[in-house]
Amino acid sequence: MPLACLTDFQAYARERLSKSTWDFIEEGADDNFTRDDNIAAFKRIRLRPRYLKNVAKVDTRTTIQGEEIAAPICIAPTGFHCLLWPDGEMSTARAAQAAGVCYITSMFATCALEDIAATAPRGLKWFQLYAHPDRQLNKQLLQRVESLGFRALVITVDVPKLGNRRQDIRNQLDLKMSLLLKDLHFPKERTSMPYFQMSPIDSSISWNDLSWLQSITRLPIILKGILTKEDAELAVKHNVNGIIVSNHGGRQLDDVPIDALAEVVAAVKGKMEVYLDGGIRTGNDVLKALALGAKCVFLGRPILWGLAYKGEHGVEEVLNIIKNEFHTSMTLTGCLSVAEINRDLIQFSRL
Ligand SMILES: Cc1cc2nc3c(=O)[nH]c(=O)nc-3n(C[C@H](O)[C@H](O)[C@H](O)COP(=O)(O)O)c2cc1C
């Protein structure tokens, strides 16, 4: 039976994957409140369609950081794709290229960055960094990233410490270092440590370090994980180029909202692009996020479900389904172009 929507891929992945891999992908932190609320939040929003607008030609294209994408639906950074498919991130990169969308490659990629870049040379790729305590290592990594043609640097700010993921503890998850961090060259003696005991992320990083990060790269810098107007204003003050409103798919701090999008959009006053990830599962979700001011959304887990289904072709199917759904959402609400999507298209349900 063909798979018809993104949650069909979720059901397939659940059947196929080992319990510990499934739990690793799926779980959130603590009580999973935020993970589940990310999905529920979109259901609290209703659409206000406009009709009789001649929607014979609907165009889903847009731009991010000045570069065209086929639809405002791209791929969020997630680590360890080789857990799900043999050539992991290389499959993901080819699928993104075929779909004409941006792929944010995680620093925790399990394929070498050179191979990811070479397998999809025409695809738009950004690189996601967790600042490493060794500053020299960050610098070297960013030089490689630039020379390989990645077009923006995404700095994830919501992991000064790993969230409390209970299932990984219960499953005694041990992602062997043979799978891990080919780009970081950790000393050999650390190679068998479970990833949640490793500490490659610099928890001392602060706003004061942004100018240093800006000084070691020419790439635009996007901060991923901003959830408040206070931090959004600081991002503007520090001349950041974009924000991804994200609660890490509910995997870090629990009990935080995805509704922060509207707050952040208002705070930046159009001075930078704002994007969203977390809980996007349908074309209507994409439309709602754009109506609230996001320039583009990113998918996390659905890409991993697609990879688990059929590698590159599974990810392509996931992207094509949600792109088609978004085209339908635009057509049925009377939007001919992405620029026409605005706040008047939505209302908050009283439920
Ligand atoms: C298995 C998994 C691994 C992830 N790895 C990273 C990562 O390496 N870097 C990062 O910034 N975010 C990471 N994330 C968070 C995603 O980028 C994204 O914020 C989140 O998955 C979006 O929510 P969604 O899964 O509901 O689409 C990961 C998420 C998952 C599920």
UniProtKB/TrEMBL annotation:
Amino-acid positions noted as binding FMN in the UniProt annotation, renumbered to this chain: 77-79, 106, 128, 130, 156, 224, 246, 277-281, 300-301
Keywords assigned: Flavoprotein, FMN, Oxidoreductase
EC numbers: 1.1.3.15
Binding site for glyoxylate: R165, H248, R251
Active site: H248
EC main group: oxidoreductase
Keyword Lipid metabolism: no
Pfam short name (any one): FMN_dh
Gene3D superfamilies named among the record's database cross-references: Aldolase class I (3.20.20.70)
Cofactor(s), by name: FMN
Molecular function GO labels: (S)-2-hydroxy-acid oxidase activity; FMN binding
Flavoprotein listed as a keyword: yes
Substrates-to-products reaction catalysed: 2-hydroxyoctanoate + O2 = 2-oxooctanoate + H2O2; a (2S)-2-hydroxycarboxylate + O2 = a 2-oxocarboxylate + H2O2
GO cellular component terms attached to this protein's record: peroxisomal matrix
Ranges for domain FMN hydroxy acid dehydrogenase: 1-351
PROSITE patterns with a match to the protein in the record: FMN_HYDROXY_ACID_DH_1, FMN_HYDROXY_ACID_DH_2
GO terms under biological process: fatty acid alpha-oxidation
UniProt similarity note: Belongs to the FMN-dependent alpha-hydroxy acid dehydrogenase family.
Name of the protein in question: (S)-2-hydroxy-acid oxidase
Lineage of the organism: Eukaryota, Metazoa, Chordata, Craniata, Vertebrata
This protein's encoding gene: HAO2
